[in-house]
Design brief:
Protein-L-isoaspartate O-methyltransferase, four-stranded antiparallel beta sheet, alpha/beta, transferase, 28% helix, PCMT, S-adenosyl-L-methionine, 8 helices, 294 residues, ten-stranded mixed beta sheet
Length: 294
């Protein structure tokens, strides 16, 4: 069984890396190395291509796990291990490096925590937050052999977050939490779905500059996640839907002060996104509108 699983993982890793256009070979290596079985739980499993009903696998053959599909953790609540090709693309975009410290918000059963741990290596650290106690318990058990990870069964919106090079959020929000922005080190990247619950939004990457209130920002593509508790807002959701309908590819910066001007794409309380560039731009990456589901 292990030999078959390794064969499946090798093909799967190639497939999703191609779907994600991932230039970093470590992305493919991470998906080839980390097995999905322990994070999926016992089969049969419920899988889905985003936006379509779940289909139950005929049995527990691990071949069913190694596809570019959603994998249900709780199908009644729509909780999934997210689409691998989408996550590979977003992880490639934020360029997680060896030795970095990562905060993951919304760990689920820990699959992408393990992927992140592989990317940072034993010299790095991954702090995973999961508000659902049952899932946090599963993640803690699944990750117990990876010494440079820890799982915290509480909200990831907190003033005592550790400082981090990358904050990778797996829950949709109507705004970036101030606590996330404050926890970023200089040059750090926040990647989160600006996507209130029930809405297709966009995976936004914000980079903390050395100084100043104008931060480079860009959408890595469209995204839809289960909502992040504490960061939902009906009015913002309505206005965001209108903003995305007008186009989203032109966003270039997050402004944390000053009144919104004619370059404003969307304004929240104390922050706004602008189509004008920040003083220091980020490396170019072409947004992928076809990758949406997590």
């Amino acid at each position: 069984m292990e030999d078959r699983s390794a064969k499946y993982r090798a093909f799967y890793a190639q497939l999703i890396s191609a779907a994600a256009r991932a230039a970093d070979p470590r992305i493919e290596e991470a998906f080839r190395t980390v097995g999905r079985e322990r994070f999926a739980g016992p089969g049969p499993w419920s899988i889905s291509v985003g936006g379509h009903p779940y289909v139950v696998t005929p049995d527990d053959d691990p071949a069913f796990l190694y596809q570019n599909t959603l994998l249900a953790l709780d199908s009644a609540r729509g909780l999934n291990i997210g689409m691998p090709g989408a996550h590979a693309y977003w992880l490639s975009g934020c360029a997680v490096k060896e030795g970095e410290t990562v905060i993951q918000i919304g760990a689920g059963s820990g699959y992408y925590t393990a992927i992140l741990a592989h990317l940072v290596g034993p010299g790095g650290r991954v702090h995973a937050y999961e508000i659902d106690e049952r899932l946090a318990g599963l993640a803690r058990e699944n990750l117990k052999d990876i010494a440079h990870t820890d799982v915290r069964d509480r909200s990831g919106i907190a003033s005592d977050l550790p400082k981090a090079d990358v904050i990778y959020v797996c829950a949709g929000a109507a705004q970036p939490a101030t606590e996330w922005l404050d926890a970023l080190l200089r040059g750090g990247r926040l990647v989160f779905p600006l996507a209130p619950e029930g809405m297709i939004g966009g995976m936004l990457m914000i980079t903390r500059p050395d100084e100043g209130a104008v931060w480079p920002a860009k959408f890595l593509g469209r995204a839809q996640f289960i909502g992040c508790a504490g960061l939902q807002n009906a009015d913002a959701a309505r206005r965001l839907a209108e903003a995305f309908a007008r186009g989203w590819e032109g966003v270039q910066s997050l402004r944390r002060e000053g009144a919104p001007d004619e370059t404003c794409w969307f304004a929240g309380e104390g922050w706004w996104l602008s189509t004008a560039p920040a003083p220091v731009a980020t490396a170019p990456i072409k947004p992928n509108a076809d990758i949406t589901q997590a």
